[in-house]
């Protein structure tokens, strides 16, 4: 039933080119070292580790780290009277934000690094942020807590959905 009442849904991933270049570059170096040492019999690096630890490092860093960053997903859903945010795998279930606790909100353009220290679940001087990429989002201000920024590739749609959900939520509460 709740599925029918979703006014807005967005799933985001880390899409920064520099991040993927770094992750895949590191994976390529690890894989090349593995091939050179384990399959071709050379030694990888000035102080090489044995084959087993190298294999574990390749599995964790070469394959695990890129897979982890690919798997991380920020899901934002807006329903009448509530906004839900989930950054998988850090949230086992969505964080529910009752919209009656939101004093006001606005679409913003922000600098993730300067204002929040990067992407992910971040805390900064301006409050808390959920962000995976981009520079746009909706800033929520509350009656009794720090502001919360929800990063979005579709900030205008998110803003309009929150506006609609807040109005619909008032009708439900009445």
Topology:
Elements: E1 8-12, H1 17-39, H2 51-71, E2 73-79, E3 82-88, E4 95-98, E5 102-109, H3 112-116, E6 120-124, E7 127-131, E8 136-142, E9 148-151, H4 155-173
Parallel strand pairs: 7-9
Antiparallel strand pairs: 1-2, 2-3, 3-4, 5-8, 6-7, 8-9
H-E order: EHHEEEEHEEEEH
Number of strands: 9
Distance between the termini: 21 Å
Helix content: 25-40%
Extract low-pLDDT stretches: none
The number of distinct helices, counting runs of at least 4 residues, comes to 4
Strand order of the largest sheet: 5-8-9-7-6
Label this structure with key terms:
alpha+beta; 9 strands; elongated
Provide a concise account of the structure shown:
The chain is of the alpha+beta class.
Structure characterization notes:
- This protein is of the alpha+beta class and 174 residues long.
- The protein contains 4 helices and 9 strands.
- It has helices at residues 17-39, 51-71, 112-116, 155-173; strands spanning 8-12, 73-79, 82-88, 95-98, 102-109, 120-124, 127-131, 136-142, 148-151.
- It has a 5-stranded mixed beta sheet with strand order 5-8-9-7-6.
- Helix 1 (17-39) runs antiparallel to helix 2.
- The relative contact order is 0.17.
- The mean pLDDT is 90.
């Amino acid at each position: 039933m709740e599925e029918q009442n979703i006014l807005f849904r967005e799933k985001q991933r880390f899409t920064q080119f520099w991040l993927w270049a770094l992750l895949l570059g590191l994976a390529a170096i690890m894989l090349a070292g593995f091939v050179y040492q384990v399959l071709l019999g050379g030694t990888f690096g000035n102080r090489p580790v044995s084959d087993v630890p190298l294999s574990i490092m390749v599995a964790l860093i070469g394959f695990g780290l890129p897979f982890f960053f690919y798997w991380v997903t920020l899901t934002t859903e807006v329903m009448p009277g509530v906004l839900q945010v989930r950054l998988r795998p850090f949230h086992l279930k969505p964080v529910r934000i009752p919209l009656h606790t939101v004093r006001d909100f606005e679409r913003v353009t922000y600098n993730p690094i300067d204002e929040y220290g990067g992407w992910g679940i971040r805390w900064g001087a301006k409050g808390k942020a959920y962000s995976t990429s981009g520079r746009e989002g909706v800033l929520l201000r509350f009656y009794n807590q720090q502001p919360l920024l929800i990063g979005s590739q579709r900030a205008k749609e998110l803003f309009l959905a929150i506006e609609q959900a807040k109005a619909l939520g008032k009708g439900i509460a009445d």
